[in-house]
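Researcher: Next entry in the queue.
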Amino acid sequence: MSSFETFFEPGNGTRYHIMAAQVEHEDGKVGWLIAWMRNSGSGGTCMWLANGGGHVHPTYIAEKMNCGAEDARVLADYINDGNCFPERQEGGGL
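Model: Structure for this entry, 94 residues:
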């Protein structure tokens, strides 16, 4: 199992503090717990994504992470670019 912490800056003057951990669910499936530490790193919101996840739509993220459309779009772009799923990246690394 792996985990990581990063500060993602999409180039629009914002900074996203993201933490993620690979977790084994009670049914044996492995997925990712993604946390956006939006309160200056002291707290935030999180969501569960099945491993491999497919394409995550911004409206799904907005609903699960209780955030606005623009933040959801940025987070979806970050996740969909393969940043949270090693199997999507060449060589399998984060």
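Model: The mean pLDDT is 83.
Researcher: Noted, moving on.
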